[in-house]
Design brief:
The chain contains 21 helices and 19 strands. With 751 residues, it is α/β, with parallel strands linked by helices. The chain has an eight-stranded mixed beta sheet with strand order 12-13-15-14-16-17-18-19. Strands 3, 6, 9, 10 and 11 form a five-stranded antiparallel beta sheet that branches. It starts with 21 loop residues before the first helix and ends with a helix.
Length: 751
């Protein structure tokens, strides 16, 4: 990648608009010649400013420093430094931890549902950054002299946010920060508004986070993408960042102060004849107005504008917290999105146009945001479409209909440019209610169905966080923003999308249920990823279901591997764990019964020899362990005289009764039939009717059982043998049964 500007990366990378410390400026002066040499040699950004140190020199460093490190797998390391402000007092820190945007995984061997989460010390060339899908680990720093705490961390190229956690229980797990307060790097201060934040509250993390850049090494990072755009530019070459506040003038928040940040590009001219384009960037949930400026956006803008890859642009960052009904401090994210949208459109944009030479032309207006800010972008798309030409929702789910008129058929939407970013491992892509579409993809799906133009980047191998969002922004800025001759942003229909993501909040059972949905769609490649993660989260039933998929040859195998052998291994493991479903499946296998959900699959006798005694033993064991489905199989087996046993209606009724007593819907339905007709048990229509009524009252989740109960009640009231005849009641029950799919009830109504 050809770079025209090589940023000044001395001891630390400082945010735009923040004064450099004396030590940084001195170091910068020493590096002037190196910078020029780097420009001529096309060295990676920041490489020329990074020195190599002897161990003695490194130990003497007291401010966070990026340096060349021949012992690092990446070619570079960072010495993170924190000086305890309470050193020598009774409040002196006993523990300091470092937290940052790191945590890596090998994409070649990792699955989509989890990352290896290799530490920076375990990194290998080609590993991807998994930060965002999971919480990155915290690392204990080492205490030195005079209150200095430090830790040397090898890191590959990229921009990294980081902060320190001070205090807490010295014996607690490193990731347990209870009782800690947060601090940014005092030698690398972020750009901040004057809003006071409590360093003990997680909701304030944006205010206590610094940013640093690590260069690229052509030999040690040959398989790692180069991201020079994330490196701070040389002093005097970048834009200016500052913060303002204003009083909200209308709506429920009238009279409240609202804070926002402003970025003015390098060389900003308030008297320029042509007004500047403006980009409104909204932060994510739990963040605040400085978030984007301290997460790499300033560096991206400075570099791309300087290289002519992007038109000089003004950026404004409103605060969602000022429109939070719960005061913005408790991470509940109860934002009044409509009020914020109106504030931006009716107050903030006009102010920027009047005071900062911003263009009044819609063609020069854009709005974007990440996560909750992405959702806010969709609100603007529907509510104030007249104000913006470009929309950049990053990991943003479609808003509720109550917030805006979500009508994708509106003609005016066809003239806009929508640039959607969702990283490959983004947990915001998951929607528990509609797992086949995924939450952040609902808008994508709806736009595709309506034929609206959009551009989506959904292959970035990162999670839900700024590492992915930064890369997506670079692509959008390069290819679409303010580009009148850009390629038409069209996408084919998306049903469903290729990527698979899920939330850390989902249980193993929920992921297992999602896997079964993919089984119904015969998308086993996707379903198996959910099965593995369900197992990782404690759902042992996933072992059994995966075994069935192997038996059915639904899972791709490596050369030389046998699907039946793999299936038997999984079954044996599940049996060792005393899994009730495993014993039930063993019963099916030994008896020659169909494996459910796989189109009548029967495990071949060549794989497992038939043995009805073993089958019954396994079914009984599954019952003992609480798996009620075995009651029905055993009942059916004796009722029909199948699988090598003689028909025995009494035994069948006994198993159905045990299943009914355990509240199994199908066994209740079948035992009620036994009682109603006197099959294998003394006839008792009154008890049978009560059981049919129960199936209807509880709306049995198996529709066949629910429908059967309704049908039988319709029949009972139609015949009037065991209850008083009631044609109106009969018709009502029959109609209910028909609505549930009962053909018997449909015939009864039509006779």
């Amino acid at each position: 990648m050809k770079r025209r500007f090589i940023p000044k990366m001395a001891v630390v990378a400082l945010s735009a608009g923040v004064m450099m410390s004396g030590s940084v400026m001195t170091q910068a002066a020493e590096n002037t010649a190196q910078v020029q040499e780097a420009v001529e040699a096309d060295e990676p950004a920041g490489a020329a400013q990074c020195k190599s140190y002897t161990q003695e020199e490194l130990e003497a460093i007291t401010e966070t420093t990026v340096f060349k490190d021949e012992n690092s797998a990446t070619g570079y390391s960072v010495k993170f430094c924190f000086t305890d402000p309470d050193f020598g007092t009774e409040n002196e820190a006993q523990r300091v931890r470092l937290y940052g945007e790191w945590g890596f995984s090998d994409p070649a061997s990792s699955t989509i549902w989890t990352g290896e989460y290799a530490s920076p010390w375990e990194w290998q060339d080609g590993y991807t950054l998994w930060f965002g899908t999971h919480t990155a680990p915290y690392y204990d720093m080492e205490k030195g002299e005079n209150g200095l705490w430090s830790l040397v961390v090898p890191l590959p190229t990229g921009g990294y946010k980081y902060r320190f956690y001070i205090g807490g229980d010295v014996d607690a797990d490193a990731n347990d920060t209870t009782g800690c307060y947060m601090s940014y790097d005092q030698s690398n201060k972020p750009a901040l508004s004057d809003v006071e934040k409590d360093p003990y509250q997680l909701s304030a993390h944006t205010y206590f986070t610094s940013y640093i850049f690590v260069p690229w090494d052509s030999e040690k990072q040959a398989n790692t993408d180069r991201v020079d755009e994330l490196c701070p530019v040389a002093e005097g070459e970048g834009g200016e960042v500052f913060f303002e506040k204003t009083t909200i003038q209308q709506g429920d928040f009238t009279g409240k102060e609202s804070n926002y940040g402003i970025y003015l590009p390098n060389g900003f001219d308030p008297d320029r004849e042509e007004g500047y384009p403006i980009l409104v960037m909204v932060h994510g949930g739990g963040e605040s107005e400085p978030a984007w400026f301290n997460s790499g956006l300033v560096e991206i803008l400075d570099n791309m504008i300087a290289e002519g890859r992007m038109e000089p642009t003004i950026v404004v960052t409103p605060s969602m917290n000022d429109f939070d009904r719960t005061d913005g401090q408790n991470m509940k994210h109860d934002y009044d999105r409509v009020a914020l949208d109106d504030f931006i459109s009716q107050q903030l944009l006009p102010y920027m146009e009047e005071n900062y030479n911003v263009s009044t032309d819609k063609e020069k207006h854009a709005i974007g945001g990440c996560s909750n800010g992405g959702t806010q972008t969709w609100v603007a798309y529907f509510n104030h479409n007249e104000d913006y030409k470009y929309y950049i929702p990053l990991s943003g789910a479609e808003p509720a209909q109550s917030m805006c008129d979500i009508d994708y058929t509106r003609e005016e939407l066809k003239d806009d440019v929508v640039m959607i970013g969702i990283s490959l491992y983004d947990n915001a892509g998951w929607n528990l209610d509609l797992p086949e579409l995924k939450g952040a993809y609902l808008s994508v799906y709806n736009m595709a169905q309506a034929g609206l133009p959009f551009k989506i980047v959904n292959g970035i191998p990162y999670g839900h966080g700024y590492p992915g969002w930064r890369i997506e922004l670079i692509k959008f800025f390069d290819e679409y923003l303010w580009k009148v001759d850009a390629e038409e942003p069209t996408e084919p229909a998306v049903t469903p999308l290729e990527t698979v993501t899920y939330s850390d909040k989902l249980t193993g059972e929920q992921l297992y249920a999602a896997a079964l949905l993919y089984r119904e769609k015969e998308d086993f490649a996707t379903g198996i990823t959910f099965m593995h993660e369900a197992l990782a989260r404690g759902c042992d039933n996933a072992l059994v279901e995966m075994a069935a998929w192997y038996f059915a040859d639904k899972v791709p195998m490596a050369e030389g591997e046998d699907n039946n052998e793999e299936a038997l291994k999984l079954m044996e493991l599940a049996t060792e764990r005393d899994n009730a479903m495993a014993y039930y499946y063993w019963g099916l296998i030994y008896s020659g019964g169909n494996i459910p959900g796989l189109g009548g699959l029967v495990v071949s006798e060549d794989v497992v020899e038939r043995d009805i005694d073993k089958a019954i033993e396994c079914f009984e064991k599954s019952i003992e362990l609480g798996y009620n489905k075995a009651y029905k199989f055993l009942g059916d087996m004796y009722a029909k005289g199948e699988y090598g046993v003689e028909a025995d209606q009494t035994k069948a009724a006994e198993y159905y009764k045990m299943g009914a007593d355990a509240k199994d819907f199908t066994c209740t339905h079948l035992y009620a039939d036994c009682l109603y007709n006197g099959n294998g048990v003394e006839q008792n229509p009154e008890e049978a009717i009560a059981m049919y009524q129960w199936l209807v009252d509880v709306q049995a989740h198996n529709k066949n059982d629910y429908a059967w109960g309704a049908y039988m009640l319709g029949k009972v009231y139609e015949e009037g043998i065991y209850v008083e005849k009631d044609e109106e009641q009969s018709k009502a029950y029959y109609e209910l049964a028909v609505s549930l799919g009962s053909k018997d009830a449909e015939e009864a109504l039509n006779k």
